[in-house]
């Protein structure tokens, strides 16, 4: 019974539950009070046993209380039974004992009804009991007097309990609202706790993922560097012997007289041609691999300037025209007449065009290869269309990947290296452009690439050095004052977040100041002691007080500065490069006595053959294979020019040069340096210093930041030195 009552209360609304609980509480209080009254009456009856009416009334009250107690699990029924029993007992006692009719006996059920069921119930109960007591005159009382008394009691109870009832209801509503808010707050707190736990778990997972990502990134960077070093080392290791093969095959093919033969047989000439062609293919492959390695290492120099793209396309077509004629292919150029200038490296874009045109000619059996260029929005789109067999849809997804090739049915002739399109993609992306392919099987393919363009204002740009408007730039501008383009190329590779523009002099920079709005000026101080230089004159001439940084900067061949070399040749060395360097070093009228110094005997022999092919006599060329032998033969033969390798096992080339310059018995000699290093290699291990000049004083935060940077750099260097020792 109690369990069902609790279940019933749980099923009720909060207000109904509250009313049930309040009714049960008040009923229990009345039961206790009436039980005490009944107990007192029974004690009184123990002394006065002759009072029959009182004994009956007390017995009836006791039975009523017992019934109510049995109905306690149903408060409403128990309350109704109590009120009804009290009212009935009051009416009966009033009839049996008329003196009680006008007393307070009838007030008991009215008060009980008001307490249990509210003021309205008390008023209704008084109105119900009044007619019952007024049915006849009782004990000489006027008939209306008991009714009025009960009504007054009902009204007093109604007016007395009603405000308390309203206050209790209001307090309950507030308590109910507070309970609801507490429940909501508890639920919200539970949700927040769950969220905090989830965030804590997510934070740990994020930390773990970040660590894994950092490790993966470091591994990927290490692998990329390893790949770049491997490709560069492999290219360098293969370049010298391959250059020897190419050089000797050209000399043998072109000049059989050097070997005592009037001419070669046709079979031998064809074999030599095969050697030349395949050696040239390998040399081109090595160049492509080295280019890709430099692109991956962000060391590919891109010298962007404003150029006429239409003229660049015409130059590329002219360079590939002979190949097209061999395959009976017509090259149709359709360039928009008013193409805007493009900010690009002309050499690199010509390389992109050459790769695309070569593929188009190889893919076309007979017909036309069309080259179009048009200005669309803020870019110029160049397209190369062939009439070949087309490219399958699945191959278009990887057509620009490295070392991926289509099957032999797509391109005729020799199979490609699988690098041309990958290099083209990298070069276009270095210019901020994009490249894509459209193809349909049986109807040919169209390879397109886009380059961003800039608009020019003739009134704001100097005619001698046209440059793009600053509003078209997405990167801040660094102006570089240097006579060497290699300086700007180095900075572009290392400072990709800036747009590096080189000027040969201060006047050119100032003429384009408004159009560029540079954030800083870098003055190349290579070959000078920067720390002893006064503030550069450009500081006072600048329209705005921006920093001027004077520093020593790496360059492609740093050995040129202050070491006495007339020029530097990078291996592999062609015959044209060699003869041009010798003509520049010897001039007209000087005797031709040459000393070749290199520890690679094959390379020395190739240089000797190239010189003999150019008309040098045997007694005009001397050779040495190490630094000690070079010093001895230089003092013995007094050569007019020396080809000197910089890296030798015993004495370096720079030490050989220093020893020759310190020898008073040696005449003035032109020294041509030979090195296998590329400009990207020269960047490694470069050292330099800098000073910052600015018209306005440095802010405290800027000064402290520079001081911290200098101190931390010094501590890092000391830690590295001590750790290595």
Explain the overall architecture.
This protein has 22 helices and 17 strands. It is an alpha/beta fold and 725 residues long. Among the domains are: 2-178, no CATH class; 305-452, Heat Shock Protein 90 (2-Layer Sandwich), CATH 3.30.565.10; 572-675, Rossmann fold; 700-725. A 5-stranded mixed β-sheet has the order 2-4-5-7-6. Helix 2 packs antiparallel against helix 3 (52-70), helix 7 packs across helix 18 and helix 8 (266-296) packs parallel to helix 12. The longest helix has 111 residues, at 144-254. The two termini are 92 Å apart.
Give a brief description:
Helix content is 56%, strand content 13%. The chain is α/β, with parallel strands linked by helices. Among the domains are: 177 residues, no CATH class; 148 residues, 2-Layer Sandwich (Heat Shock Protein 90); 104 residues, Rossmann fold (3-Layer(aba) Sandwich), CATH 3.40.50; 26 residues.
Strand residue content: 5-15%
Class by alpha and beta content: alpha/beta
Radius of gyration: 53 Å
Number of strands: 17
* Helix count, DSSP H or I runs of 4 or more residues: 22
Helix content: 55-70%
Which term fits the overall shape? elongated
Mind describing the biggest β-sheet?
5 strands, mixed
Mean pLDDT: 74
Q: What is the CA–CA distance across the termini? A: 92 Å
Order of strands in the sheet with most strands: 2-4-5-7-6
Low-pLDDT regions: 136-144, 455-473, 527-533, 555-562, 679-687, 717-725
């Amino acid at each position: 019974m109690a369990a069902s009552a609790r279940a019933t209360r749980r099923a009720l609304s909060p207000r109904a539950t509250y009313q049930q609980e309040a009714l049960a509480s008040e009923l229990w209080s009345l039961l206790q009070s009436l039980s005490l009254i009944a107990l007192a009456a029974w004690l009184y009856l123990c002394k006065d046993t002759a009072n029959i009416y009182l004994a009956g009334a007390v017995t009836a009250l006791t039975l009523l209380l017992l019934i109510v107690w049995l109905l306690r699990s149903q408060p409403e029924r128990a309350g109704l039974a109590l009120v009804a029993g009290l009212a009935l007992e009051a009416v009966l006692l009033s009839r049996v004992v008329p003196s009680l009719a006008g007393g307070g006996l009838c007030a008991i059920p009215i008060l009980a009804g008001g307490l249990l069921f509210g003021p309205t119930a008390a008023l209704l109960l008084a109105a119900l009991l009044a007619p019952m007591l007024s049915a006849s005159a009782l004990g000489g009382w006027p008939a209306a007097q008991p009714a009025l008394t009960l009504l007054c009691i009902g009204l007093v109870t109604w007016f007395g309990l009603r405000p308390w009832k309203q206050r209790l209801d209001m307090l309950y509503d507030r308590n109910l609202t507070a309970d609801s808010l507490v429940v909501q707050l508890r639920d919200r707190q539970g949700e927040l706790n769950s969220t905090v736990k989830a965030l804590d778990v997510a934070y740990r997972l994020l930390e773990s993922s970040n660590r894994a990502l950092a490790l993966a990134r470091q591994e990927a960077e290490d692998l990329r560097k390893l790949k770049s070093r491997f490709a560069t080392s492999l290219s360098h290791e293969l370049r010298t012997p391959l250059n020897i093969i190419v050089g000797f095959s050209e000399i043998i093919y072109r000049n059989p007289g050097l070997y005592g033969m009037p001419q070669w047989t046709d079979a031998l000439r064809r074999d030599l041609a095969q050697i030349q062609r395949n050696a040239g293919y390998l040399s081109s492959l090595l160049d492509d691999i080295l280019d890709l390695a430099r692109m991956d290492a962000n060391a590919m120099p891109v010298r962007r300037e404003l150029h006429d793209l239409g003229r660049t396309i015409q130059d590329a077509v002219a360079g590939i025209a002979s190949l097209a004629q061999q395959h009976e292919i017509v090259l149709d150029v359709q360039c928009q007449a008013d193409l805007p200038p493009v900010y690009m490296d002309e050499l690199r874009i010509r390389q992109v065009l050459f790769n695309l045109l070569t593929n188009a000619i190889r893919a076309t059996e007979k017909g036309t290869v069309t080259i179009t260029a048009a200005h669309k929005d803020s870019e110029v789109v160049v397209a190369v269309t062939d009439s070949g067999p087309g490219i399958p849809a699945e191959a278009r997804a990887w057509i620009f990947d490295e070392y991926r090739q289509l099957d032999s049915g797509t391109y005729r002739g020799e199979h490609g290296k699988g690098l041309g399109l990958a290099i083209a993609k990298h070069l276009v992306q270095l210019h901020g452009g994009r490249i894509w392919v459209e193809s349909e099987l049986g109807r040919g393919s169209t390879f397109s690439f886009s380059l961003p363009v800039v608009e020019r204002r003739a009134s704001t740009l100097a005619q001698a050095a046209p440059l793009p408007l600053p509003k078209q730039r997405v990167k801040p501008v660094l102006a570089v004052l240097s006579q060497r383009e290699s300086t700007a190329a180095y900075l572009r590779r290392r400072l990709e977040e800036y747009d590096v523009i080189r000027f040969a002099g201060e006047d050119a920079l100032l003429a384009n100041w408004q159009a560029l709005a540079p954030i800083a000026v870098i003055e190349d101080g290579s070959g000078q002691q920067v720390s002893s230089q006064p503030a550069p004159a450009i500081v006072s001439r600048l329209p705005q007080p921006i920093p001027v940084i004077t520093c020593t900067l790496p360059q492609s061949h740093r050995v040129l500065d202050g070491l006495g070399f007339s020029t530097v040749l990078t291996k592999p060395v062609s015959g044209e490069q060699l003869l041009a360097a010798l003509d520049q070093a010897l001039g007209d009228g000087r005797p031709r006595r040459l000393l070749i110094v290199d520890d690679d005997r094959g390379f020395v022999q190739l240089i000797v053959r190239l010189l003999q092919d150019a008309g040098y006599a045997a007694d005009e060329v001397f050779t040495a294979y190490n630094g000690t032998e070079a010093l001895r033969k230089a003092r013995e033969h007094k050569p007019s020019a020396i080809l000197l390798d910089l890296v030798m096992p015993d004495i370096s080339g720079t030490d050989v040069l220093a020893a020759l310059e310190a020898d008073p018995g040696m005449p003035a000699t032109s020294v041509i340096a030979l090195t296998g290093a590329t400009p990207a290699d020269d960047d490694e291990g470069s050292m330099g210093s800098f000073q910052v000049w600015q018209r306005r004083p440095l802010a405290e935060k800027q000064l402290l930041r520079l001081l911290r940077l200098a101190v931390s750099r010094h501590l890092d260097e000391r830690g590295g030195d001590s750790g290595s020792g």
